[in-house]
Amino acid sequence: MRNRLCLLWVLYAGCSGPPDDSSTPVDLTDEPLRELAQSLGRRMGSVVNPLIEPDPAFEPNLLREFDLIIPGNAFKPKNIHPHLDTFDFSLTDEMMDFASEHGLELHGHTLTWGKASSLPAWLTSRTDWTRPELIAVLENHIATVVGRYRGRVFAWDVVNEAFCDPAYEANCVVTAGEDGGMDGSFWYQGIGPDFIEIALEAARRADPDAMLYVNDNGWELNGSPKASKLYAYVSDLVTRGVPIDGVGIQMHWGMTMADLALPSPEWQLRLEEAAASLRANLQRFNDLGLDVRVTELDVALPDGPPCSSEQDLARQAEVFVLALRTCFEARRCPSFNLWGFTDKYSWIPEARPGYGCATIMDSNYVPKPAYHEMKTWLRSRL
Ligand code: G3I
């Protein structure tokens, strides 16, 4: 099992080829990110996915720097529930065992998501589901998956990307008088807006001790349509006593050439405004009695020169530190999580052509300025 696991810990997303011997490994005499975060009572996490090809450098870097893993795809219904009456726990069991073996927390992602690519064909190909039938399917899915890992998975993204901004997202169902809306895809269409509380209540029944999260992207800025809709919806859940413990803020940031070319004073002002808005946003969810968590941070740069230009990498580092300090200075932000820690397996190049260079280490695991600046900030807080 151990050998197989060693091979398992390679992210999928179009490997850029075998590790290059010229890689300069991290300074092993230096305390890793996880130790610095632990000194502040917080955790440092990264997404992991199953293998495509062996990469002996991946696991040592993961285990040195992180004490929390988020399976990027393994727990998605498409992969864990391939047929109506069949669950496939082979990979999720191995990931859970790996986490247990190494004392890592595992954040389960995700029990419900309307995105068709995360759902199995047996669910999306049928068009005559009734509401009661779909509620039964959803409750059985959650009871089976969460029940299997009861007491082992410490937190779940019960719901992912259920909200939207109609200015940027199609299929966004907006209630009269509101700016933000709910993603009108599969679960919303089949059950209605209350699928979220049905899912949360099913998860609580299956594991009363697991932390239950609603996770979303694009709500970083306080007062934005999506942030306002999410806040209103979650406030109502809290008021009505629906089980929820936290909200996840994904933070997939995309820098533009304009951002990178901004004169320094304007750039610094942009950062300060973003930090203030983010801080206020996270604060108000903490004030509801909820945790917040950075769940999927990466900072994509336009392809080409920016991936090697010192100023552009320095600005990327400032965004990573902005996100880190906003989380760790918040009253309740227990973990700070990256959607990959090496450019070698980042999802960005494949999903966002023309962008890349989005993580804290290059494709040879050589730390980038973002890695070093995060450590500098963490040390300044000790
Ligand atoms: O494993 C199959 C492979 O066998 C097949 O040859 C290949 C081509 O069809 O597809 C592979 O599966 C892909 C999977 O990633 C593994 O690479 C799926 O098609 C593809 O849809 C899936 O994309 C994932 C995406 O979520 C949709 O589930 C990305 O890896 C993953 O990084 C991305 O992560 C999401 C979070 O879950 C939610 N927040 C946004 C974030 C980025 O989109």
Topology, pairings included?
Elements: H1 2-8, H2 33-39, E1 43-48, H3 58-65, E2 68-71, H4 77-80, H5 90-101, E3 105-113, H6 121-124, H7 131-148, E4 155-160, E5 163-164, E6 172-173, E7 181-183, H8 186-190, H9 195-206, E8 211-216, H10 225-239, E9 246-249, E10 252-254, H11 257-261, H12 264-286, E11 291-302, H13 310-329, E12 335-338, H14 348-351, E13 355-356, H15 369-381
Parallel strand pairs: 1-2, 1-12, 2-3, 3-4, 4-8, 8-9, 9-11, 10-11, 11-12
Antiparallel strand pairs: 5-7, 6-7, 11-13
Ligand G3I is lined by residues 12-13, 72-73, 76, 117-118, 160, 217, 250, 296, 347, 351.
What is the rounded Rg?
Answer: 20 Å
Please bin the fraction of helical residues: 40-55%
Strand content: 15-25%
Question: Kindly, what is the distance between the CA atoms of the first and last residues, rounded to a whole number of angstroms?
Answer: 39 Å
Oligomer: single chain
Bound molecules: ligand G3I
Kindly report the average pLDDT value.
92
How many alpha or pi helices?
15
Secondary structure: number of strands: 13
**Strand order of the biggest β-sheet:** 1-2-3-4-8-9-11-12
Shape: globular
Uncertain segments of ≥5 residues (pLDDT<50)?
A: 1-24
Largest sheet: 8 strands, parallel, barrel
